[in-house]
Amino acid sequence: MKILIINPGGTSTKIAVFEDDQELFKASIDHTAEELKPYPHVFDEFEYRKNLIVKTVEEAGYSISDFGCVAGRGGLCRPVEGGTYAVNDRMIEDFRNIEWNRKKIFL
């Protein structure tokens, strides 16, 4: 099974394609401050980054339908124990509306 791994950072998005434990492809997509300027919140960057990821994997000869799984690292969800989680509606809502995060964690 091929797996697409996504690691979004502040100024780049790193991606890799694995089959079992073998890395088949990796890339780092850089984002300038000017490119990110139109997006006032991190979640607003979703379509921008998704389109760049799709373009990059397609240019490498893969199709999104090739992947049996997509895994990512991210940090806008509520604190959880380490592990693997299926994305659900509550997580997506937290990602979209991180006011709870600013109020409860950072203040």
Structure characterization notes:
The model is unreliable at 103-107 (pLDDT under 50). A 4-stranded mixed beta sheet has the order 3-2-1-4, covered by helices on one side. It is globular, with a radius of gyration of 15 Å. It contains 4 helices and 4 strands. By secondary structure, it is an alpha+beta fold. The protein starts with a strand and ends with a helix.
Question: What would you say about this model in short?
Answer:
The protein is an alpha+beta fold. It has helices at residues 33-36, 46-59, 89-96, 99-106; strands at 2-8, 12-19, 22-30, 67-72. A hairpin with a 3-residue loop joins strand 1 and strand 2.
Structural class, from helix and strand content?
alpha+beta
Residues in helices, as a percent range: 25-40%
Q: How much strand?
A: 25-35%
Question: Which stretches are poorly predicted, pLDDT < 50 over at least 5 residues?
Answer: 103-107
* Largest β sheet strand count, sense and barrel closure: 4 strands, mixed
Choose one word for the global shape: globular
Number of strands: 4
Radius of gyration, in angstroms, nearest whole number: 15 Å
Strand order of the largest sheet: 3-2-1-4
Oligomer: single chain
**Number of helical segments with 4 or more residues:** 4
Report the span from N to C terminus. 43 Å
Report the order of strands and helices: EEEHHEHH
Question: What is the typical, i.e. mean, pLDDT?
Answer: 86
